[in-house]
Amino acid sequence: MSMQLNETHDPALRSWVASANTADTDFPLQNLPFCLFRRAGRDEAYRGGVAIGDQIVDLGAIGNALDDAAPAARAAAALGALSSLNALMDAGPQAWSALRLALSRLLRGDATPRQELLVPQAEAEFAVPAQIGDYTDFYTSVHHATAVGKLFRPDNPLLPNYKWVPIGYHGRSSTIGVSGQQFARPRGQTRGPNDVEPSFGPCKRLDYEMEVGIFVGGGNAAGAPIAVAEAEQHVFGLCLLNDWSARDLQAWEYQPLGPFLSKNFATTISPWIVTLEALAPYRAAWTRDAADPQPLPYLDYPALRASGGFDVELEVLLQTAAMRRDGLAPTRVSLSNFRHSYWSVAQLLAHHTVNGCSLRAGDLLGSGTQSGPDASEAGSLLELSAGGKQPLTLPNGEQRVFLEDGDTIEMRGWARQPGRPRIGFGAVAGTVLPAR
Amino acid sequence: MSMQLNETHDPALRSWVASANTADTDFPLQNLPFCLFRRAGRDEAYRGGVAIGDQIVDLGAIGNALDDAAPAARAAAALGALSSLNALMDAGPQAWSALRLALSRLLRGDATPRQELLVPQAEAEFAVPAQIGDYTDFYTSVHHATAVGKLFRPDNPLLPNYKWVPIGYHGRSSTIGVSGQQFARPRGQTRGPNDVEPSFGPCKRLDYEMEVGIFVGGGNAAGAPIAVAEAEQHVFGLCLLNDWSARDLQAWEYQPLGPFLSKNFATTISPWIVTLEALAPYRAAWTRDAADPQPLPYLDYPALRASGGFDVELEVLLQTAAMRRDGLAPTRVSLSNFRHSYWSVAQLLAHHTVNGCSLRAGDLLGSGTQSGPDASEAGSLLELSAGGKQPLTLPNGEQRVFLEDGDTIEMRGWARQPGRPRIGFGAVAGTVLPAR
Predict the structure, then answer these.
(1) Which of A159, A189, B165, B269 is 20 to 30 A off residue B61, Cα-Cα?
(2) Chain B partners within 8 Å of A264 (Cβ)
(3) Which of A159, A165, A170 should one mutate to test binding to chain B, selecting the residue with the greatest count of B CBs within 10 A?
(4) CA distance A42 to chain B (A)
(5) How do the domains of chain B map onto residue ranges?
(6) Which of the two residues, B337 and A150, has the higher pLDDT score?
(7) Given CA atoms A43, A49, A52, A53 in this order, what sign does their dihedral have?
């Protein structure tokens, strides 16, 4: 996939969908992210859709609208009309790019308006966009790893492997839900610092983690690693991901084999997947401290230093039950950026497969919590509250160290560059219900 | 599911399939394990089958053979004829039991022989029997955990959580293969004890782990834990599992989030799944040392102490390339027993779901390496070679500390009790190819 800019990136493009031309939309014509949706309250199949302003282009209703487009675009649209996006993801970057170009032309201001292709986002319900065969969670923010490491291992915050190995572990596919997910506070074993024996009960240190999700496009055969220089061709796109975490369960269970029940009760993703092609104008340099080691050859590639990262701002907002009751909007608790990631997306795929492990279309990778260098950029309450010691005071006077029942966490993400429209990821929201 | 014995367990039963009545078969009429198979070399669909002697009852060819059986048995056979066993697994213990009874009656010596239902096992090829949504690997042998802990943490071999928490982590679904799997020696980062920096190359400490696989039958909704007393009703059956492990990769990567590339390049399972009903006469007492803590209430249940375990012998055999060339049979390197497991199968399911995590039909759990208390019962080369320090000498004079290219590991399992036929799990074999 060429990361060169093309006509779909032209900042001057406007759409006949008026809501796509406003300054505050996440979904101008230059974005065109994918989702899986259906009209809410109807007994109809989920199918693929593409955001434009406050509307969705229904790939299941495309009919003859792309008859003038390239055959590859028509074929990709047909795959996008299926009940999951796996087949479209598997089709590869030429197919994704052909469909993007065709949709861009279809929706431009000088094209004939085709309202019959549109479903208002307000009338849609969304689903997890792919059958996720395997979900892997990484740990790519050195700022997060250092801050959390200090809490778990004060004498040894950043382990010796961190700056050599993109640390990751396998997560749970069965409990990944789309924005709007609600889940009961998990129960489990914990042992306090002064306890001899563990006890069982509801989690007392429930947290979120602000992450970027990476949907794998075309996979690789077992035994055939993905080379780092080609790895981005295997990425369908990025979404937002909330890796809900039960810190007290994690502290007691995680040695020696890593997090398990502390993570696998729920993971929430945004409905929208922004393609790498849409993000091409919003790439970031990949930088290291002078003392940091150079990546091993299988993790190094020509484009890494100039444009290995993504300049995507990541915002976390909290709305408590009391705020909701009083009509108060969610309040920002942090703002970070994906460009702080110590490892690039391409490095994650290359590392994941270098031992012969196979990825499949629809697999999901989590970036790990995207904390930045400043304290206000921390991607979890564990960091914002200094391990639960310093409560956050919210605008209505409420305080939080960890999440309480009824709290909703909303994450938003967007990319912007001078002279270009801002493109957004929409939102991922999830709500904590009381323990059963 | 009642674990009481019924007519299908009668030790006197004989079959019209003569090979099922021999003393050395794994598959007498009292066993009836499931597989997914097709005739080798033919362009036909995989479907379910049931072993009897050296034959397979083809569930795709059952026709009117069960017309006299209960409707539940006919319905279950129809699900078993599909291209994966997920639907049959999801049907629940009444369905599995009805089908077992019907097949037992169909195959008895006094029934009319129906050769047209049979496919010789020698003419079949097998597949992973279900679409495995999530794969979880546990760590249930306290003997393995202690022995390995000594190598990684000499001063602290068994961590404080071990005897309270059934330790587990999520593994990789995409690289699970059926017996016969071959894979290239994985490559990756390692750092020796005297090295300042890591290096990249083929794994030098490649190992196997002898485990029992547990296929989940009916799952649970997210947020609705499976109670430990009912957990066995959610287990379709057991198989053999080889958790291939790259010890040098593991030592460098595993902190703080657990094993990743050291495990996810390959996992091999036996084609046969032995149901819990078949294993009912071969249960084992579940015992603890007097000083061990009692399980927390969510992990305790009435049947635990008398019959929580399974008396299944587990054998590991090694055949090197030289042995294969010289016509030498695989040689036994260890013999253990699943009854040594510190945690019961029911406890694994209850723990896995107590936080609200959902299991789905077809999910696979690994028991963890089943090492017994004696050194000859060690389920990995890491233990047998004392961390690579004491080579094993094979009958032909070759030595091994870890696996070499061309080595085949074969695992076998069986259960026996006085006055009852021995029932077996068949074999799971896998071969290490040279690194790419």
Answers:
(1) B269
(2) 170, 355, 357
(3) A170
(4) 23
(5) 7-126, 135-433
(6) B337
(7) positive
Measured between alpha carbons, how far is B5 from B279 in angstroms, rounded to an integer? 10
Amino acid at A69: A
* Distance separating alpha carbons of residues B139 and B368, to the nearest angstrom: 4
Distances from the Cα of A153 to the Cα of A157, A159, A326, B360, B414, angstroms: 5, 9, 41, 36, 45
Confidence of residue A340 (pLDDT cuts 50, 70, 90): very high
Distance CA B151, CA A12 (A): 63
For chain A, what is the mean pLDDT? 97
User: Is A10 annotated among the ligand-binding residues?
Assistant: no
| A174 contacts chain B (CB < 8 A) | yes
User: Is it the case that residue A377 has pLDDT exceeding 70?
Assistant: yes
Residues in chain A with CB shorter than 8 Å from the CB of B153 are: 256
What is the ipTM metric for this complex?
0.97
Please state, for a pLDDT cut of 70, what percent of chain A lies above it: 99
Give the three-state DSSP class for B127: coil
Residue B192 CA: distances (Å) to CA of A275, B143, B157, B247: 41, 26, 21, 12
Q: Known catalytic residue: A144?
A: yes
Q: Decide if A354 touches B, using CB distance below 8 A.
A: yes
CATH 3.40.50.720 describes domain A7-126: no
What is each CA distance from A73 to A57, A58, A80, A98, A185, in whole angstroms? Answer: 14, 15, 10, 5, 44
Residue found by looking up tokens 């290096």 in the block: B199
The pair of structure tokens assigned to B93 is 């213990």
pLDDT value of residue B2: 43
Non-local (6+) Cβ contacts of A229 within 8 A are A301, A302, A303, A346
- For residues B263 and A224, give the distance between their C-alpha atoms in angstroms, rounded to a whole number: 16
Q: pLDDT class for B4, splitting at 50, 70, 90?
A: confident
What are the backbone angles phi and psi of residue B316, rounded to the nearest 5°?
-120, 130
Residues of chain A contacting residue B351, judged by C-beta atoms under 8 Å apart: 261
B358 touches chain A (CB under 8 A): yes
Mean pLDDT of B205-209: 98
Is A135 labeled as ligand-binding? no
**pLDDT tens-digit series, residues A6-47:** 999 999 999 999 999 999 999 999 999 999 999 999 999 999
Mean pLDDT, residues A138-155: 91
Tokens representing B409 are 């590991």
Q: Chain-wide mean pLDDT for chain B? A: 97
The answer, for B294 touching chain A at a CB cutoff of 8 Å, is: no
Cβ-based contacts of A173 with chain B (< 8 Å): 133-134, 173
- The whole-angstrom separation of Cα A372 and Cα B91 is 49
Residue A3 confidence (pLDDT): 67
Q: B1 pLDDT exceeds 50?
A: no
pLDDT tens, position by position, A82-123: 999 999 999 999 999 999 999 999 999 999 999 999 999 999
Reduce the DSSP state of residue A146 to 3 states and report it: helix
Q: What is the pLDDT of residue B3?
A: 66
Q: Tokens representing A420?
A: 């270009």
Mean pLDDT of A351-370: 98
Buried b (16+ CB within 10 A) or exposed e, B78-94: bbbbbebbbbbbbbbbe
Q: What is the CA radius of gyration of chain B?
A: 21
Alpha carbon distance A170, A87 (integer Å) = 23
Element (H, E) at B349: helix B345-353
Tell whether the torsion through CA atoms of A39, A42, A45 and A46 is positive or negative: positive
